[in-house]
Structure prediction request, 449 residues.
Amino acid sequence: MSRFVRSSKYRHVFGQVAKPEECYQNIAVTRSAWDSNYIKANPKYFAVCWEAAGGGAIAVVPHEASGKLSQGNVPLFNGHKGPVLDIDFHPHVDSILASASEDGNVMIWGIPEGGLQKSTTEPLQLLQGHKRKVGTTDFNPVASNVLATSSTDFTVKLWDVEKGVNMFTTEGHSDIIQSVAWNYGGSLLATSCKDKKIRVFDPRSPTIAQETTGHQGVKGSRVCWMRDKLLSVGFSKTTEREFNIFDGKDIATPIAHQSIDSASGLLMPFFDHDTNILFLAGKGDGNIRYYEIVDEAPFFYYLSEFKSATPQRGLAFIPKRAVNVSECEVARALKLSTNKMEPISFRVPRKSDIFQDDLYPDTYAGEPSLTAEEWAGGANAEPKSRSLAPGFVQKDKPQAELKFEKQVQEGPKSEKELREEYEKLKTRVAYLEGELIKRDARIKELSPQ
Prediction:
């Protein structure tokens, strides 16, 4: 019986950890138990959810500042009153960062040229509207200044961060939203929820377009778009880690399924839209598996696995336009452990001084295709792309000058307004008390006698 080895230029991709002097020491990662990656990166900086007394904090570190960070003297963004649960860099402006916190607020921060030199508590913009803690922040890859946030109040809100206004609110989730993901064109959102449902919708529309049953395990799950396909990772009833692949146009049933192992940590998915490589990193272990995604059955092929004895608390990938093309680096991950951050370079083993154009198709340029107003009006567009060839010189893009309009929260002024507000709050409290009674009754009903 003959065996055919599938041809793929990524079949021999391998991961290599940076030298000790190129790693980052004294990283104080938050101790929050919220399921988050705790780290995000852009071509200039990486940001970490930082452990701090009396609230939440974020450290922003330039990529060139490797070595030991100064203990106790790291400048921080520390305006939140509760732990920071998620962060995201603006995809079009490297100096803008969004953060979400247990205090129910979303803050937009500005990074000075050269990096943060001293701690600050004043954000550029404060976004208020969620009624409970905010768990995710995700910028739209195509529309400028559009941010999606989700909260434990079971809503997804869309913000214009420059104007500080809530553009759209999507309801319809019946439990805590565990992950939110934009599709490649920035026109659809996918969510995974604690009610074991996966939902796909256009946030500009008031209704959920598609809904299907996800993973049956009680632990968390996540979703990730892979061009026109949707990936979900989670746990089976027997607590095995697994992933499903769906056709993005019809998520009723998965087109592919794979059980992975019985480890306890959640899988963190990352997809490279240029190479079609899917990276799955396990929380609490040191392994990163990677697969090549294709358009025909079986829809994925296992490539290899990066193994390490150091468990990872979080992971982020830098944008493709920042990789080292001269060393055939196709991806670079930033691995966050208890007190250290290690870059991991994924490379194709080739010996040549010539630019490998088959490994590097045009990639995401980091420029907006639409304004927030155009996108809100229903317009869609493909992301702008650029070449990674060494001789290619990208035209100078004008540095976006965002003029943040802070929204002043005005309370009731007259006695009549005060009475109306009081009645609204009293009704709200009565409703919440009723919900608590129903939930307690439900818990008692489900508890073993």
